[in-house]
Amino acid sequence: MTAETIESDGEVLARIIRGHGPVVCVALHAGHTLSATASRFMQLSDEERLREEDPHTARFAPHGVTLVEVVRSRFEVDLNRPRESCVYRVPDDAWGLTVYRRDAPESLFEASRRAYDAFYERMADLFDGLSEQGPPFVVFDLHSYNHRRDGAHAPAAPLEGNPEVNLGTRSVDRDSWGKVIDAFCEAMTSCGLDVRENVKFGGGEFSCWVNRRYSGQACALAIEYKKTFMDEWTGWVDADAVARLAAATATARDAVVAVLDGMHVS
């Protein structure tokens, strides 16, 4: 396995660890770092940013797959939103949070859009290479979500609308990829997880982009793990819970690969 980086304006945006097989994992919101300029004008504390980021999600990627881990914070550039809204300019963009100081220059936001372009250009190169190899491939778009938004000591959100794993498939062509979706859900369920489709989220811009650009060749599954594996207020991580989710994701990968081996997608 080899490692490489995606850079923008001379600073690292993401890491790519090259693996093998038809499943690629992407942790879009795992990052916490900021560029020097963004850090200078950032209004939020590290703790406030971490609460809305998706830390540790790269750890759910099965061993041996190609992994793309974004290391830059979503508060500088959100790669899971359309380009025109990839920067959080007003509180309504970011859960009511004021992200940048009022004197933040426009050049900062232009740099974020350049980073956005650099990432998608590199993803196009990566996925174009996979599509040229012939067999279909699947992208595991790894995320996590908060379920204790009422406060650190308040009750968690009801289980009814907050599954342990939410699978976003709204942009997936079920006629072509239904067996892949079913295999993923059945495998995760067999590991004792509550996995449901499109209850909390249907998938963001990245999975939509993959499903649109590689229609008939690939599909992206937007996977949201509820933050039961950590304390979203303190950042404390339950290593056993992370291991359990990682093992379940590996089981799901194996089930998806078995389906892909028998597929001929047009």
Account of the protein in words:
The structure is a single chain. It is built from 6 helices and 8 strands. By secondary structure, it is an alpha/beta fold. It has an 8-stranded mixed sheet, sandwiched between helices. α4 crosses α6 (239-261). The chain is globular, with a radius of gyration of 18 Å. 41% of the residues are buried.
- Average pLDDT taken over every residue: 96
What is the number of independent domains?
1
How do the SSEs run, as a string of H and E?
Answer: EEEHHEHEEHEHEH
CATH class: Alpha Beta
In CATH, the architecture is 3-Layer(aba) Sandwich
Compute the separation of the termini in Å: 30 Å
Any idea what the shape is?
globular
Number of helices: 6
Beta-strand fraction estimate? 15-25%
Helix/strand class: alpha/beta
Largest sheet: 8 strands, mixed
Under CATH, the homologous superfamily reads Zn-dependent exopeptidases
Helix fraction bin: 25-40%
Uncertain regions spanning at least 5 consecutive residues: none
Task: Spell out the key features of this protein.
266 residues; 6 helices; alpha/beta; Aminopeptidase
